[in-house]
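Quick question, first post here. What does this chain look like in 3D?
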Amino acid sequence: LAQAIQSAEKKKYKTLRFGGKSFNLEAAKVLAGLLPDLEGVETLDLSDIIAGQETEEARKVLKELSIAAQGMDITELHLNANALGSNGIQACEEIIKGNKNLKGLFFNDCGLESKAGELISKFVLSNGKPSKIEMFHIFNNCLTSAGAITLCPLLENSPNLKNIRISTTRVSSEGGLAIAKALCACGKLVDVDLSDNSFGEEAGEILKTKVFKGQAQLQKLNLSGVGIGEKHCLGIIDNLTEAKIDLEIFGFGDSDITADGAPTLAKFFSQCTKLRSINLEGNDLESKGATAIFKALAESKNPVEDLNLLNNSVKSDAVPAIVQFIRSKKSTLKLLNLNANFISAKGVALINATLKELGKEDCLDTMSDNDDEEEDGDDALEGLTEQLAKLKVAK
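> Answer (accepted):
Ran it through. Tokens below.
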């Protein structure tokens, strides 16, 4: 950086990343002396820069760099893995307030608690309403419902929000309802991850009837383990089908979806053409539901790379459809997770034989928790070798 400045190349860098380099205060002051002289930097990544530092030293490091970078006019700021909680956010007040054109903010794995939501909203919105935020990530923090509620002023004042990740944040029903209501103001969503929370069915109703209705630009959706119940999950999927949304990533794991909900999934998968990643682990699809899903995907044009049906009570009578799916996606498939089911040893052997024939032996994830002593459904495997050539696959 010093050489670039000295050689009049102040506009050389669009992105600066310092992740994984732990700064003490002395080093931070050196960097702080250089940052104001740079021009044209769009992304500043200060992730994981205080590892191993004492709490007060770490806070001073963030404060020093925050003050130095407050006039850089960056559009994207990464503060991931700086585990100082709300004290860390407070130390970054200047950099958040001073860069008035911020579009992307990332606070993943920062040890944030409820107070942090209030500070983030306050600092960003100090630059005026509506905010310019388009990307906001706050994964793996202990926000709880209290923090989620205080974060909502930012969400409801960010109409251009496209990419949001509020996952694994211990948000329960009160906070989930507040987030769902706030997201009603965001009509341009492209990439949404609210997984691993406990939003509850009241939030699910709003997500179904308002948030995920008319999201024409949506490409990636992860609502795995968000706790809104089967009815609301299926309602959201119906909305996607009706609007002809062509997702790339589909996450509805741990969503209480049963075999009765499989036709809704199959209908959506049949109309999609871009699905690469599908997570349905931890549901109760059973063989009947899994068979419908595998067939729908086999007959679709989706370039599926990974499919997760771990722990769905699937038995060997679904193996013909599984084999059909594998053959249809032989050019794209990279990972298939069928662990923690009840597929017999014979069924697993047929799946492995098919993958080996196609040169895809590494695609099947571990089956260490699969109960292969369960022989129920083995009748469906008789004559399967002869049937394989007749199975319908997408052209």
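The two ends are 54 Å apart (CA to CA).
The chain has a mean pLDDT of 93.
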